[in-house]
């Protein structure tokens, strides 16, 4: 609690912010416990709590257990003070989630990106859907405090300019997501970050990465990317482009990139090329929709049956990714690699291969884990950054 000399108003606001932050993480708590923790008198704690109640930040939540005297009154953070939205643009769908400040998800919606020819229309549809969800749940626009968006490319945090865009969905050229959202929600804090960066934050704060200070989050999906946490903080680089392993070259004499070789798009293209060489056309079953989309069900069946062709493809993908992750780990000395991979949907345990590659080649111990937030790591990373902003400004709400 604030002990420094200064303006009484500033000291009071700082004290109230500390109390609000504590109750955000430790609700409900009795005033006597707050007095003990912060070493302030009961009247002083009660005065600050009362003012926080007047601002609707804190609320009474009943009585605690008695230890022989009066039952203590309990106080909790008001998680319905406001609401936050998070958007994941990582895959083939715009995935939208609306939650209160306690991260209770109130509503969700998925929008197929392939139904849109440009990013402006897709973002506007997302805005329209958010407004609909808010109306359906009786949430006034002034109660929406923050919107976070995970974008599959690099974003300048200052200008909102996007670059290093995904090649598999050509709708984002010239789209300024932050500006589009702020035009509809001018009073709302808008955060637009690389999707892999949000995923890394999400897993570090709420998932399998809790307790680790140095980790890499890597995703193998329609594209390939990574998010990097160093000393507990997101590392974005000088141009906000860190973690773009999609552009790694595995052979300097080749025009292809890592993403061309191991992404779902890359695996699909490989099967198409191999099918053209296969006079029996036995590989046709692995493709659907005019041989443009991978048939996950057939690939999974082939993995279970230990089909040598599919297992060979999966092994090659593992080796290429493992080589990259090994080199990154040697360079960064990270403790953990978190893996999000579509190969799971194919019934293939890529983590087992990566463990073998890393253990065989590195002299330092690097743990690997699958992502743990049920494909919501980008969503929760957005929630985390929104809450950081809101709690920093909490007394002004």
From TrEMBL:
An example Gene Ontology biological process: D-xylose metabolic process
Looking at the UniProt entry, the stretches that span the membrane are none
Q: Which InterPro entries match?
A: ATPase_NBD (IPR043129), ROK (IPR000600), WH-like_DNA-bd_sf (IPR036388), WH_DNA-bd_sf (IPR036390)
- List the keywords (alphabetical): Carbohydrate metabolism, Xylose metabolism
Q: What does this protein do?
A: Transcriptional repressor of xylose-utilizing enzymes.
Q: State the similarity comment.
A: Belongs to the ROK (NagC/XylR) family.
Name the record gives this protein = Uncharacterized protein
Q: What is the lineage of its organism?
A: Bacteria, Bacillati, Bacillota, Clostridia, Peptostreptococcales
């Amino acid at each position: 609690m604030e002990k420094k000399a200064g303006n009484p108003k500033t000291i009071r606001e700082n004290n109230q912010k500390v109390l609000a932050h504590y109750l955000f993480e430790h609700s409900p708590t009795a005033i006597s416990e707050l007095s003990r923790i912060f070493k302030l008198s009961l009247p002083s704690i009660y005065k600050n709590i009362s003012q926080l109640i007047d601002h609707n930040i804190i609320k009474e939540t009943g009585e605690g257990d008695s230890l022989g005297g009066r039952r203590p009154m309990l106080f909790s953070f008001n998680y319905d003070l406001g609401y936050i939205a998070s958007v994941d643009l990582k895959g083939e769908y715009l995935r939208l989630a609306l939650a209160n400040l306690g991260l209770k998800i109130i509503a969700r919606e998925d929008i197929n990106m392939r139904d849109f020819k440009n990013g402006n229309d897709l973002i506007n549809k997302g805005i329209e859907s958010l407004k609909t969800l808010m109306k359906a749940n009786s949430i006034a626009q002034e109660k929406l405090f923050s919107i976070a968006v995970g974008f599959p490319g690099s974003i300048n945090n200052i200008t909102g300019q996007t670059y290093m865009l995904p090649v598999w969905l050509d709708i984002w050229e010239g789209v300024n997501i932050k500006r589009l959202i702020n035009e509809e929600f001018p009073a709302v804090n808008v955060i637009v970050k690389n999707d892999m960066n949000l995923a890394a934050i999400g897993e570090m704060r709420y998932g399998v990465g809790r307790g680790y200070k140095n980790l890499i989050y890597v995703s193998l999906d329609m594209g390939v990317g990574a998010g990097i946490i160093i000393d507990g903080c997101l590392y974005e680089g000088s141009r906000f482009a860190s973690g773009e392993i999609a552009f790694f070259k595995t052979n300097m004499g080749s025009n292809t990139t890592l993403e061309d070789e191991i992404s779902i798009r890359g695996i699909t293209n490989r099967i198409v090329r191999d099918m053209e060489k296969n006079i029996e056309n036995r590989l046709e079953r692995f493709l659907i929709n005019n041989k443009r989309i991978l048939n996950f069900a057939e690939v999974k069946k082939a993995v279970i049956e230990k089909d040598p062709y599919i297992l060979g493809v999966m092994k090659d993908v593992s080796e290429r990714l493992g080589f990259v992750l090994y080199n990154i780990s040697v360079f960064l000395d990270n403790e953990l690699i978190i893996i999000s991979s579509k190969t799971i949907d194919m019934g293939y345990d890529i983590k087992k291969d990566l463990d073998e590659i890393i253990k065989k080649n590195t002299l330092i111990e690097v743990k690997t884990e699958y992502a743990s937030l049920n494909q919501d790591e980008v969503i929760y990373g957005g929630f985390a950054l929104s809450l950081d902003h809101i709690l920093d400004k909490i007394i002004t709400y």
